Amino acid sequence: MTNLNKAELREIVSLRQETIEMLKRVQIMFRTSFDGLMKNDIDILKQVLKDETKINKAYSNLTTSAIESSKKKLSAEAKNIVVDLVNIISAIERMGDLCISLVERIEYKISEKLLFSEAAVQEYKELCNNIDKILSNTIEAINTNDKKLGKKIIENKSRLYVLIKKSRANHIDRSAKGICDEWAKIRYLDMLDFIKEIVDHCVETVGKLIGK
Predict the structure, then answer these.
(1) Using CB atoms within 10 A as the burial measure, which of 1, 37, 155, 208 is most buried?
(2) What is the pLDDT of residue 3?
(3) Containing domain of residue 169, as a range?
(4) CA distances from 195 to 63, 79, 144, 148, 172 (A)
């Protein structure tokens, strides 16, 4: 952002910081959904729904601010950054939606007293630790404009895909052996799909950052 004038820089820094705060809120939602699953507690999950309201409000405010910024007389570089931020904000809002989808599946699992095997829980725990790390790295990459870290996140996508695919295959196998019932299997596989989408949106976000 070296070619921006002071006014452009001030406006874009403000938008970027608010975008980071929005992504931090999504990370809290993700962590809370995991905590609710581990503790089998629907009350914990209710906090995610409250945070969704904050995400939706932030999304609306940020989108409006970004659009207003784009209407101003900006340099080509500044306009491109604003467009990228709008796309990033949309990706973050979608991540919030995915956290809600996770909560819905977990609530069903708890209310219907469905059980995941110990192996399934451990695999999901490992995946969530990885997702939490990629969220932290995405926040850091946006905050510091670290293109090297952004590339690392993108390169790490394939490894996470392999872990998710392996967990999916393992759970289908457990279900076939009667270790996990069919309804529990469906909810678990849905959850794997949602966390994969969160990875996709993190990669999309840092892709905007490094111009890929």
Answers:
(1) 37
(2) 74
(3) 6-210
(4) 25, 32, 25, 24, 17
